[in-house]
Amino acid sequence: xxxxxxxxxxxxxxxxxxxxxxxxxxxxxxxxxxxxxxxxxxxxxxxxxxxxxxxxxxxxxxxxxxxxxxxxxxxxxxxxxxxxxxxxxxxxxxxxxxxxxxxxxxxxxxxxxxxxxxxxxxxxxxxxxxxxxxxxxxxxxxxxxxxxxxxxxxxxxxxxxxxxxxxxxxxxxxxxxxxxxxxxxxxxxxxxxxxxxxxxxxxxxxxxxxxxxxxxxxxxxxxxxxxxxxxxxxxxxxxxxxxxxxxxxxxxxxxxxxxxxxxxxxxxxxxxxxxxxxxxxxxxxxxxxxxxxxxxxxxxxxxxxxxxxxxxxxxxxxxxxxxxxxxxxxxxxxxxxxxxxxxxxxxxxxxxxxxxxxxxxxxxx
Length: 365
Prior knowledge:
Helices cover 44% and strands 13% of the residues. It is α/β, with parallel strands linked by helices. It has one domain (3-78, 117-362): TIM Barrel. Strands 1-5-6-7-8-9-10 form a seven-stranded parallel β-sheet, with helices on both faces. A three-stranded antiparallel β-sheet has the order 2-3-4, with no helix packed on it. The longest helix is centred in the middle third of the chain and has 22 residues, at 183-204. 47% of the residues are buried.
């Protein structure tokens, strides 16, 4: 099998692939480190939200390292560049002022940090998902890789995270619990943007669409399942339906950090195919429990511990984690092995290579 066939067979659960497929994302310092090691130049592909830049860049490098997937997404409009402040921050298309932190680009000033009315949402000029030039890099990479690799269209920060990044998390969560009138119109605007990006990627021929909003924490959900069902479930149902109106065969993939097992049945009900990142060591995410309860209706992507094992574990601990996750989640197919988040600069290059070697060692069927 080539990489594309391997991923499709695994994630559609249509049979047993020749081996468990693998995918991974790297932060900028790790991309630079592996670029130097492999002699493969890395050119960043700026996106409308900075975290997406690392996921949609360096496909040549990551496939050379063994990834079965390439990741593409919406970029910046033609001729557009982020304004910068005197102290070195960028201001993205959504009006967020961002500064490079230790690991991520952090939002240091939110455009709606004092919002109090629905009228402010209506007056705000949201970016145009259909702006010319957004998909120049995506078109190039899809054409290059579409026959041999599984192509993922990344549309994370689907609505909840984009909205609270515009307001500030504490204020957004309090206002959502208080039923402030601006909350749902703001979510509708972020959802509208995501649908526009996702439908264009579906039309361009991606194999899967990767949505994402983090509703989970280490010990449970950040909002109640009831609130999620009332506010977010119908909106995600609409998003999934819209992209399938363009391509009925596109795989719907969903990223949600933390312990979110209480809503997995709901996500399956509205059309989810693949759950990512299957964060380990949180309640409800025990591999055997997930496979037993959901494995006939849902595929899994992720599950390798990037909080401790990959950054600080020994080679033996890394191999043990990979072997265990493959043996359980990969039984009969239905699994793509991956770290449970983008790998950060605290992870040694050697540990990433150990992870990739372990997938090859233990992943054959």
